[in-house]
Amino acid sequence: MTTVIIIRYSEIYLKGKNRGFFERLLEENISKALKGIKCERVKQSGRYLLEGYDEGDVDEILFRLGRVFGIHDLSVAEKVPSDMDEILRASLYVCEEKGSFKVLCQRADKSFPLNSMEICAEIGGKILEARPDLSVDIHQPDFYVSIDVRENGTSLVFKDRVKGPGGMPVGTAGKGLLLLSGGIDSPVAGHMIAKRGMKVDGIHFHSYPYTNLQAKEKVITLAKKLSPYTSGMTLYIVRVTKIQEEIHKKCNADFMVALLRRFMVRIAEIVSQKDGAQCIITGESLGQVASQTIEGMTSTGLVTSLPILRPLVGFDKEEIIERAKAIDTFSTSIEPFEDCCTVFLPRHPVIHPKISDIEREEGKLDVDSLVREAVSDIEILRL
Amino acid sequence: MIYLDNAATTKPDAECLKKAKKYLYEDFYNPSSVYKEGYDLKLDLLSAKEEILSHIANPRDFDLIVTSCGTEADNHALFCGAKRGNVVTTMGEHSAVYNAAKELSQRGTDVRYAKLKEDGSVNGDDLLSLVDEKTSFVSCIHVNNETGAISDVNALASAVKKKAPGALFHSDGVQAFGKLPFKIGKDVDMYSVSAHKIGGMKGCGALFLRKKISIKPYIYGGGQEGGMRSGTENVFGIKMFEFAAAKRFSKLEENYERAAHMRDCLLKSLDDELFKVISSDKASPYIVCVSVLGVRGETIVHEAGDRGLLIGSGSACSSNEKKRYSRVILACGVPEADADGILRISFSPETTEDETIECARILNETVKSRKEIMG
């Protein structure tokens, strides 16, 4: 009897000719996630088995696989030869001490002498004989004993199915560049898009010396927390101090954020071309702050030909916070370091900016040279 | 690089390092060991502690408990010294005392905070008005670590003892020890110090404890430091502390005059249209606190750093209002607008006049250009 981990993936997306492509990326992402842990991966139909790892690594393996999109669920199972005595031994091993149970069986090996109903009945009966404290409840059992009789002469016996992160393998749906501010929203936006299979890289804007090194470090921490979900992440760090100073000096103060965001999108587009990203992702949510209005979004959308994905556009703050907590970015996001958006913050930012007004204000700046200057000195981190 | 953040930490003294090196490479033994090599070290440490003590107190009257830092010494004093009744401290304490007092208050102790005068020294009248016969513990910082303001802790201790004879009086002397001429007065019971503020190593501090006072240990274990602070002794750190203290105290007055000269030199060279001086002229000359009007202190610290000058700030680029301004600076009655631009320049005996003038030049230039940009 050896312990293995069963990794199951949702087959719904894996039909037709694309199957190989999806599976290859999922395998790559699993290997990347398990880097540094000794184990072997065996492919079976619709699932992988992990074998040959140290018992002490099980929790770490489950934790890491819990961040690989495309995995539907996971089980820690006992692998035995397909023999009723061995299956019973494994079944007794996985059983709880007390409570009610139900035996489930799948039989892929049609040459096995008993069918799945018969296996359930026989194993269930023998468990009851051996463990008088247990009882059977086929409607609402406290736990299941699942038996999977495979074609290759082995059977897998397990108790729990741990829910995986779901979604699609990262890399199957192109690549996007996430505007990562350090706040609560943007990591959640990146997580949601990665879940649909998109590779996500990050871009962060700072205004040192007005913002501090801790603020930058905080964003690096957020990117590190996201990177297991995105199967690694490249983070581009861009200084926009000069742009903010120029806006402050030459333009109507109320347009600071509206103008700055257009610069961010322009810079993100240039970085996307180098990075191979096909879209820009933001954590904007309609009406959350002054710049996140439909007018604000229209204005930023006009300066790029790339689509801007805003997965949180219809979310309430509370819903976003709940997700941020679930992916463990919340506690980092609420560290109180200022980001560049709050430097030179106007008292009354324009909420419904007219494109003509924005363009008039922007006309006072040498946009091209400011953008060129910003992208000429980008710090690149591979996480 | 010009380093003028010596109130945060000082560079370990090279001469002392040379002398103390053998305690890393040769005399590395555990002083609790029973063989001769270990026992000799124990004796060596005892004399080192007495030596450190003797600079400001009589070793007949005081014990020295070596700790891992000034913060631990403060925590030991508060958590083990405060008994029933109430505790009185000040709004100008270093976080090591202030946050420990807050914790005491959380645990149900009545903790009272005395107001500060404008320069950051404690308002003695207010402190005494808070003390009553039920006061069990009073803690008052000797030199304010942000403004350099000096409180006369000996006089305060005597006044406190008149009102509450049973109270213990503690002072955080981290920014005073080895810098100011001072002897512990008859009514001060505990005094915290730290090695790395005077050329010693980080990881070594001490609590001076009057012999007739009985308090409990803060850390339990193998019974080192006479049972008052268990844990294998930091031999190298203690010897460095001994050597550094000896060096500082041997030239205490000379260094003091030198620091005062640097302070005057700095204040003369700073553009008084750009800076407002917060420290009073009676403050410790080692610490100069100024405010830049209209620019956040941390912004200037960043930019000065890029230009080769390292100094401290009293405000942070924090989006949390409560964390942005220094609690101590606000307690001095400084308005928020000024509190936003706080800078702290702090000297060591090694600071030269050239460095001080260059510091002023960099600050003048940085603030001027920043103000031009920010309009």
Tell me which protein chains meet in the greatest interface and how many residues each side has. Answer: A-B, 16 and 17 residues
User: Helix share of residues of chain B?
Assistant: 40-55%
Largest sheet of chain B: 7 strands, mixed
Structural class of chain A, please?
alpha/beta
- Described by the principal axes of the CA atoms, the overall outline of chain B is globular
Measure the end-to-end span of chain A.
39 Å
Number of strands of chain A: 15
Structural class of chain B: alpha/beta
Mean pLDDT of chain A: 92
Can you describe this structure?
The complex is a heterodimer of chains A (383) and B (375). By secondary structure, chain A is α/β, with parallel strands linked by helices. Helix content of chain A is 37%, strand content 22%. Chain A is built from 13 helices and 15 strands. In chain A, the strands form two sheets. In chain A, strands 1, 2, 3, 4, 5, 6, 7, 8 and 9 form a nine-stranded mixed sheet that branches. A six-stranded mixed sheet of chain A has the order 14-13-10-11-12-15, sandwiched between helices. In chain A, α3 packs across α4 (116-130), α7 packs antiparallel against α8 and α8 (256-275) packs across α9. The longest helix of chain A has 20 residues, at 256-275. The model of chain A has no long low-confidence stretch (mean pLDDT 92). Chain B is α/β, with parallel strands linked by helices and 375 residues long. Helices cover 40% and strands 15% of the residues of chain B. Chain B contains 14 helices and 13 strands. Chain B has helices at 14-20, 22-25, 36-54, 70-81, 95-106, 124-130, 153-163, 235-250, 252-269, 297-306, 321-324, 327-331, 336-339, 353-374; strands spanning 2-3, 62-67, 86-90, 110-114, 135-139, 168-172, 190-194, 205-210, 275-277, 287-292, 309-310, 312-313, 342-346. In chain B, β3, α5 (95-106) and β4 form a beta-alpha-beta unit. In chain B, α3 packs parallel to α8 and α4 runs parallel beside α5 (95-106). The radius of gyration of chain B is 21 Å and the shape is globular. Chain B starts with a strand and ends with a helix. In chain B, 54% of the residues are buried. The model of chain B has no long low-confidence stretch (mean pLDDT 94). The chains are: A alpha/beta (383), B alpha/beta (375). Chain A binds chain B through residues 208-213, 215, 245, 248-249, 336-339, 342, 344, and chain B through 296, 298-303, 306, 316-320, 323, 373-375.
